[in-house]
Amino acid sequence: MADVYDDNNDIEKLYEYGERLNVAKDKSQNEEDYKNIISLAASTNIKAKQLAAQLIPRFFKFFPALFDLAFDALNELCDAEELGIRVQAIRGLHLLCKDKPVYIPKIVDILAQFLITEENVERDAVHKALLSLLRQDVKASLTVLFKHIESVDEPILDDNRERTLHFIRDKVFPIKSELLKPQEEMERHITNLIKKILQDVTGAEFKMFMDFLKSLSIFGAKAPAERIQELIEIIESQADLDAQFNVSDGYHIDRLISCLYMALPYFVRGGSSSKFLRYLNKNIIPVFDKLPEERKVDLLKNVAESSPYSTSQDSRQILPSVVELLKKYMPLRKTGEEMYLTYVECLLYSFHHLAHKAPNSTNSLCGYKIVTGQPSDRLGEDFSELYKDFTERLKCVEDLAKATIKKLTQGMAQQNKTMATAISDEEKANIKTQKQNSTTGLRTCNNILAMSQPLHAKAPSFIGDKRINLSWKDAIKTVAPPANAAGVKRPASTTNGSGNYVNKRGRGGGNQLVHRAFEGISYGGRGSLRGSGHGRGLGRRGRGRGRY
């Protein structure tokens, strides 16, 4: 009974000390009472510990000489076995920073370690405390939080890293406009923090951080060219464009393709694609045949979408490789080789946009006779055999495209009839998918015809504008003008190859649907397009968090 009596006595003493401090006009004269409150934080009574955790922050500001002693006592209570004590201590710990801001980095570090708790009430207290400190000093708080994301090896620290990431993603990023003030200074600070930790992140984490960075005003619509290039350089670093390429390293291949895809919107905004294109031309395209089958079409699609934004110099360098691939996938009829129509669409699109910037390069590659007045025109040389070979291959692919259009059109008519008699939702869904396959297949074939036909001329005009809408990209939906609107032109149809270019990638296995639409149509009697896939793993971290 003596122990119980002592425990209850601790509670009574705390109430007594707290009441005297509460009524005192000059609380600094009651330093001994505050010291006693601090000492009773070590009581064996649970309720006494909780009460001490309430009283320490309440009177903290009146006793500067006891700041460190009070901080240590409250910090100890944060490690108590009893949940109620920990929660009360956590709720009070961050309040100390109002009177001693220098504690902010230390307390943020302590609170971040509690993010791994499985207790909802405790985690909620930690979140609220951290957000309070972020609002008080966002720069110091973010700096400490990001240290918990840096590379770690110990499993428990690794778990803390994940929870810290989740907190930043779910609690900090959504209120960035409130926290990041002054805006430009704090946006630059968090950008630097993010860049520092990107060398060891998973694919999902890298995408999350890039999505956040592009949402910042310093990288917004009015951002200067050097800011856009900064984002591209971040992606280039993740892609390991300075590393020696090994075609058997599927991890690097996936990361490279994923990063190129992620960089596309910044090429559109004026950033340079040179480093990516030169790396592809030097390391990837020469071993294209050795790439995993499902990654080939992803690579070609990315190259196609990058080609409108290449420089003249880069276009001249990469054109020979593109022509070589075109010839491979537009074989002469007598070879009996199958054709990969999506490959051809990608390569023809790339060819047009690259040749538009370096037209006379095609003289020695395809036998054209384009005059620019430069020595590189090479007009005195005979390339007639190249022209004959190239145009015969074009004729071959055009015949296949026309045959495919006929087959798909017939199939769509049958699908419409089947839909009229379909009963179950499953049947209707299957038919709808088949129709979507056929529609995408028709777009691929129409694009091939629209791009191949101009290339039969001796001096063709290459397509360098947005008239071709690639088959895997969504067409822009236009609203028809009122019938009585004067002087308004009708929008171009997207079915004749003049659809507008839009910066949106078709997702979710769309390529596989197109490939099935072409089954059984090829020279030599084989199936045509092969599977692709848009799974874009991205990331470096190992230790169970997934690689590329």
Helix content: 55-70%
| Poorly predicted parts | 1-5, 478-548
> What's the SSE pattern?
HHHHHHHHHHHHHHHHHHHHHH
Structural class, please? mainly alpha
Would you count the extended β strands for me? 0
Q: Tell me the span between the first and last alpha carbons.
A: 64 Å
Tell me the major beta sheet.
none
Rg, nearest Å: 33 Å
* Morphology call: elongated
State mean pLDDT (0 to 100 scale): 84
What does this structure look like?
The chain is mainly alpha-helical and 548 residues long. Helices cover 60% and strands 0% of the residues. It has helices spanning 2-23, 31-39, 46-58, 67-77, 83-93, 104-113, 120-136, 138-147, 155-172, 176-179, 183-197, 203-215, 225-239, 250-268, 274-284, 293-306, 312-329, 341-357, 361-366, 384-421, 425-452, 510-517. Helix 5 (83-93) runs parallel beside helix 7 and helix 14 (250-268) packs parallel to helix 16 (293-306). The longest helix is centred in the C-terminal third of the chain and has 38 residues, at 384-421. It is elongated. The two termini are 64 Å apart.
TL;DR?
By secondary structure, this protein is mostly helical. It has helices at residues 2-23, 31-39, 46-58, 67-77, 83-93, 104-113, 120-136, 138-147, 155-172, 176-179, 183-197, 203-215, 225-239, 250-268, 274-284, 293-306, 312-329, 341-357, 361-366, 384-421, 425-452, 510-517.
